[in-house]
Amino acid sequence: MVDQPSSLPSVLDFATWEPVLRLLRDGRAEEEAVPAIRVGGRIGRGSWNLPLRREDTRGETEAVERVREALVAAGVEDVWFTAKMSPDGKSTLRLRGASPAVESDSGTPHPALLLVEGAVPQPWRRVPDPVPAAVAAPSADPALLERTLRERMPDAIGATHAEIAAAEARIGVALPAELKALYQVTRARWDDREDWEDDDEAAERACEAVGCELFPLDELYVADASSRPCPWEFAAMEAVVTAPDAAVQGLVGSPGWIAFGDNGGGDRLAVDLTPGPCGHIGQIIILSHEGHIGASLVADSLTDLVMGRPSERSGDSGGDRPPAVAHVNVRSVPSVEAAAHPGLEVLSIGVWDAEPLSLAPVIGLPRLRTLAAYPGTLADPREIAGLTTLEFLALGPEEWRLLLDAGAVPRSLSAAVVKVHGDADPLSTVPVANEILALWDRPRIIRTVLEGDLGPASLVG
Asked: DSSP state, 136?
């Protein structure tokens, strides 16, 4: 049992967890004819993931609440746990505590180990490519836009020059002429009685007038990469690709994307000041809330959006270039050799039913930065030592064990994952994870074992 931090007394009290454990135990006792029940899950301040098989949401919420209150009191975001519970009530609870070197909000049982403090995946470091020939679309017409909006919203209160200047100073970007014209008609302060005089339908009328749910002027923001956070485990699997005929650059975010509205479903509309090779400065793009990278063209200008003229251009074709991300598995790319090319950035090896694979074909590739391999798919994991450009590596515990014993862990890594599959205990990876962290002299993961007695199970029919 690892020393318990004195700052977490309630989280490390077995009684805090008893309602959750009883709920998990009693819900499965009659379904599993085994000497002991094994379960695992996660509880965080704002969400949780428990392996429950019944629809008792109220009981679940009540059981979780005691743990959530303890997390808040201790200043902890979330805790992963596994538990073994015997029919007589004797129970062992294992907790994985927080570490500054572990991604705390990934929502997965195998969060990334942050080997280099402050490091972010390569796609989140990418900045827009310059497109010196880009110009505004011919349809961009600030005067027409302003006249049209004043006709549609005659009672709206526009922003002053000082208010617009303040918004520009706050976000660090000068607003383009069309966006200024829009806010000079309406500053979109939906909750301000001075603006809308308690008219509950005002916002709806404004949405119809503009073509989206317009943000108030003081809620404009720059949709740069930091505005689209993503756990390392998933972010490292992405790649920024912009085709020669693309209207929009395939970025995570850009200092030239000014988000000004929403489509009503959580997707953000932005004015694009850093377009792709075939785009226009000031075109309107949409950033999907279901993805973390790229954007789609909506209109060639803000004037077109307001006038209801969607763009007829797509410009998203990737041509015949080999993909920067390759998935080698039984259904996709048939071999490592087929995936290898100088532009390869991400190699993912999934379920494989043939002989284990060699990494020799990708050794020396100049841009390969991510390798994720399903357990048992590599013929010799020690070949990874030859991948000197890796910044992210995801392997099973046995593969990591071989690398550690051989002293072959690439020192170019910024983050890593020790990944288990199926019913394997995710907390069993902590010893290996701590060895990896030790190579970078990073804080270790705290493990705690609690024991208690839940009493006999009450079977639920």
From this structure: B
Question: Helix (H, G, I), strand (E, B), or coil: what is residue 52?
Answer: coil
Q: Which residue type does 424 have?
A: A
What phi and psi values does residue 312 have, to the nearest 5 degrees? -95, 0
The alpha carbons of the chain give a radius of gyration, in whole angstroms, of 27
Q: What is the pLDDT of residues 411-433, one digit of tens each?
A: 999 999 999 876 667 778 889 99
**What mean pLDDT is predicted for residues 308-318?**
70
Contact 380, 401 (CB under 8 A): no
Question: HSE (CB half, 13 Å, CA atoms) of 18?
Answer: 14
Give the Cα separation of 280 and 300 in Å (integer): 7
Q: Please state whether beta strands 90-96 and 213-214 pair in parallel, antiparallel, or not at all (unpaired).
A: unpaired
Q: List residues bridging with 418 in a β-sheet.
A: 395
Check pLDDT > 80 for residue 201. Answer: no
Length of the chain: 461
Q: In the numeric block, which tokens belong to residue 78?
A: 């979330």
- For β-strands 370-373 and 346-349, DSSP reports them as parallel
Pairing mode of beta strands 447-453, 213-214: unpaired
Find residue 449's DSSP bridge partners. Answer: 94
Q: Strands, DSSP E only, in 98-172?
A: 113-114
Please report, rounded to a whole number, the percentage of residues in the chain having pLDDT higher than 70.
88
Q: Residue 26 — very low, low, confident or very high, per pLDDT cuts 50/70/90?
A: confident
pTM (2 d.p.): 0.85
Q: Quickly count: other Cβ atoms within 10 Å of residue 389's Cβ.
A: 14
What gap in Å lies between CA 40 and CA 22, rounded to an integer? 13
Element (H, E) at 155: none
Instruction: Report DSSP state, residue 324.
Output: S
For 109-234, list the strands marked E by DSSP. Answer: 113-114, 213-214, 221-222
In this model, does residue 6 exceed pLDDT 50?
no
DSSP 400: H
Report the C-alpha gap between 75 and 66 in whole angstroms.
14
Where would I find the H helices in 83-220? Answer: 142-152, 161-171, 177-185, 193-196, 202-210
CB of 456 within 8 A of CB of 87?
yes
